Amino acid sequence: MDGIQGKIKQSLQLRLSVWLSTAILGIAIAAGVFSFASAFQEANELQDDQLRQMAALVHRYPLPISQGAMPQEVPGTDPESQIVVQILPSHNALLTVWEGLALSSPVHLPDGIQTFRVHDEAWRLFVASSKEGTRVVIGQRTTTRDEIAQDSALRTVLPFMVLVPILLLLVGVLIRQMFKPVKQLASELSRRSEQDLTALSDTHIPSEIRPFVREINQLLSRVRQSIALQRRFVADAAHELRSPLTALSLQAELLNAADMSAQGRQRLDILQNGLRRTRTLLEQLLALARAQESGDEQADEVCLGQVFRQVLEDLIPLAQAKHIDVGVIGDASTTVSASAIDLKTLVKNIVENAIRYTPDGGQVDISVRVTPDGVILQVDDTGPGIAKEERARVFDPFYRVLGNDEVGSGLGLSIVGAIAARIGARVTLDCSGGEEPTPGLCVRVMFHRGAT
After folding, report:
1. Cα dihedral 154, 160, 163, 164 sign
2. How far apart are the C-alpha atoms of 230 and 288, rounded to whole Å?
3. pTM of the model as a whole
4. In sequence order, which residues have a C-beta less than 8 Å from that of residue 14 and are 6 or more positions away?
5. Quick one: average pLDDT of 380-387?
6. Which domains does the chain show, CATH number per domain?
């Protein structure tokens, strides 16, 4: 019960449906009771009028009226609905309603409509006096009258009983249709990626919801401006740091050519390694800033084989230093529609990550497969892989999996995810199928048919 009440309190649609349904039911019940009572009363009044009309006919057209026993059954009629017409005697006597029933002291009955009980059975009587002084009583059982009145009243209420459920169903459908634009707006927001901060459309939004949508659009605009400023700051900082870093690297190269002690040479090597890591970090920061920009780069038909060649030319020294076998499988001549710079950056970051995290003597395979839905680029390695619970987080900037001694910045897969989102591709991580303790990582990039 608490759960249902909680849902009703939290849902405007349910609250509106419950209140409208309650109001409709309340009004329908009140109208039904009033209609039933009115129809019941009108039916009784109509039957009273029939008794009056019969009395008038009896006085207008005098007929011999039997005072004896009534027939047990009249063909074609209901015995319970019989109407008894009798002459009241002028002296104090018993009135025989029919054989076996009698009214005591009937001469004292006043003229008009009245109800009497005969042997524990209620009768509706109408007593009328003619000009000659003859008094006629016309009677009918009240149970029969009530059944007729109830049937008439129920027929009056029947439309309410049929129409109210239809009306409640119609109200539910109309309310659902009224809230459909709101649900569509929520569905649109749920399908958006975290990088899509464009304004929401209020074309089919009700006027009561439009102020809320406008405020959301203003909030999205402020968030978009804030993120743009942060990305610009990172890009500008990385760009400004390149010049002094380049100068430091040149000084380190000049210092490396000079004569120095073994201890000084060791410290110089540490300095140069630090400078190289810093330069790599700056390059990745700039690459991430470019990938996260919403600029429209020209998409061309780029051959994956040419991209592989350029990437491997840059990474073969790193692979050879670790004795890693790098191979290309499949039709590398396949083309996809994307920016050449974006595609090279995406492939280079995936392959470089695979080489860096694969142990010495391992293997990295780059494969291309064409499917009815598009082109799949897949990179498999024999490294430690990534646990399932961490595969979603590795696309966050600067996030690194714990327990790995490889030096890195945690930006490689962030760059891959940002580029894939911009060009309309989809990146998934899986196990490459190797055996523990080195199951390996499988990175798949799906270029959909619209982007191929």
Report:
1. negative
2. 12
3. 0.54
4. 7, 8
5. 83
6. 19-67+81-169 (no CATH), 191-295 (1.10.287.130), 297-451 (3.30.565.10)
